[in-house]
């Protein structure tokens, strides 16, 4: 039985796998930051019903939410070099496709995917804000920017935080797909270790624990942020009362 399953190998795997944890966290953080920025812009455009752009973005969000992230990652990885190659052919440029790091394709695919999901979260959160409060802000001469900053965003953030936390957790787990385009992250490291030692079960237990701990930390952080925002919202409501 000892030869079939070695619990000690689980602990032995951690140090080597964790060497690549920064790459996994980098993918998650860069993607969520870009995704939030793009998602906010998309949400505002859709709320404002900007002609043409609104319809284009509805199609974009539908496509990104309706197709697997792995497929989007492959489209990014194989599609961008084709676009660069066409530009070279069409305009006589000499951009070197081989100089594009695989991480760029990962950032692009993950960020665009996140922007589609976060845009719907942000849009729903903004629309949940009581219109009477917005009208009250307008009646006392607040500008649109001030209303957004002082009335809409604080309340929308409170509504959006739980979903944004779930989105980030989902993103961290999805980073395990990055190894499919030759990015060395914790998942890629685990596969190498498992293949080298033929201890797949032990190594995958180790990688499962790592992802689990990361997601638990994110969950705890977002719960604390949500609790703090709730307290602040109650204090503001009491002041208004």
Summarize the structure in words:
Belongs to the binding-protein-dependent transport system permease family. This is Amino acid ABC transporter permease. One of its GO terms (molecular function) is transmembrane transporter activity. The chain has 241 residues and is mostly helical. The protein has one domain: MetI-like fold, CATH 1.10.3720.10. Helices cover 81% and strands 0% of the residues. α2 runs antiparallel to α3 (53-66) and α8 (186-197) packs antiparallel against α9 (200-240). It is flat and about 75 Å long. The chain starts with 6 loop residues before the first helix and ends with a helix.
Outline = flat
Q: What's the alpha carbon Rg, rounded to whole Å?
A: 22 Å
Estimate what percentage of residues fall within beta strands: under 5%
Main β-sheet: number of strands, strand sense, barrel status? none
Task: Give the topology string: H per helix, E per strand.
Answer: HHHHHHHHH
Task: Assign the structural class, choosing from mainly alpha, mainly beta, alpha/beta, alpha+beta, or little secondary structure.
Answer: mainly alpha
Number of helices: 9
**Any idea what the CATH superfamily is called?**
MetI-like
Total count of domains: 1
Give the class-level CATH name. Mainly Alpha
From the N-terminal CA to the C-terminal CA, the straight-line distance is 68 Å
Helix content: over 70%
How many beta-strand elements? 0
